[in-house]
Each structure stands twice: as C-alpha cells, then as structure tokens.
Write a structure and sequence with these properties.
Elements lengths: L1 H44 L6 E2 L2 H6 L6 E10 L5 E5 L3 E5 L4 E9 L5 E10 L7 E6 L5 E3 L4 E10 L14 E10 L6
Parallel strand pairs: 1-7, 2-10
Antiparallel strand pairs: 2-4, 3-5, 5-9, 6-8, 6-10, 7-9
Amino acid sequence: MSGQGSDTARRNNRKVGFMAFTLAVGMLGLGYASVPLYRMFCQVTGFGGTPQIASEAKAAAVNATGETISVRFDGNIAPDVPWNFKPEQVTETARLGERKIAFFIARNNSDKPVTGQASYNVEPEQAAPYFNKIQCFCFTEQTLQPGEEVRMPVTYYVDPAILKDENAKDVEQITLSYTFHNLDGKGS
C-alpha cells in the first residue's frame, strides 16, 4: 500500500511540477510580448499620447476644414546621444484635415557614426488619437556619420473628428515631441 501511495504522490508532484513549469514559461513569454503589445495598444487607441499612424489612402480621404489648430514641435535627445536635435520651426498653424510637413534638424557631434531612433508623444493626451502621422523619420533607425547634419521630415494631419470629441474639441495647441535614443550603446 505504501508503494501505491508513493506512486500517487510522485504523479501528483509531476503534475504540479509541469504546471509550475508551464506557468513560468507562460509568464516569461508574456514578459517578452508585453512591450510590443503595449506599444500596439497605444498606437491603436492613442493611449499615453501616442499619435496614430495613417496610410496615404486614409490621409487622402480626409477633407480639410476651415478650423485651425496650432502645432508645436519639440526635439530632445537622451543623455547618451551626442547629437543636436531640434525642430526647424517651433510652431505652425494647420487646418484640420490638411496634410502638413515639418522638419527636424539632427547633427552628430561625435567622431563616430551613431545610430538612433526617435520615440514620440503628443500632448495633450486627449488629442493624440486625432494626430495622424503619414510619414516620419521616427518609423526607422537613423544613422548619422561624424559631423553629419540631416533634415528629417514628418508628414502629418490633425483629424477634423477632434471637433466631435467632448474631451478634445477645445484643444487649441498640440505638441509633438520627439526624443532620440542611442541604439549603438556607444554614445560619446
């Protein structure tokens, strides 16, 4: 009888061990997937000030209105990025639905090539779902050679649907902010 009890205990221990292992692997997988899933959630919903990414077709289907909004541009760099980075113009007025292009200037001040990528945010947060980027330097990595200066465009529009949102219809200015991060890990 004691042999039978120890077999049952062993089977139960194996089940518990397998369940614990499966749970640990599942949690590890969720940990790795959480960042891209969160990023996707923010892009879809505009949560956390994440602007929308619009296709050329979607942008072409939007009609501009007579209503205008001020768009302010902000450029920052992480401490390990040896660049200067700033908007070419600090503010511009855009008609809702009008496709606009703004430029940012980046210069590598180091004696080495540096690869960076910009993260972005829109304030106030309630305006983010209506700020649509069509093309942006922030969608890809940017490598600047030593001393190189580049002019980087962002094409965008503000969706006229902002006027129908009770929380966003009174927004008079939207700030589009970028921060460049070093992807090399070798900032000078």
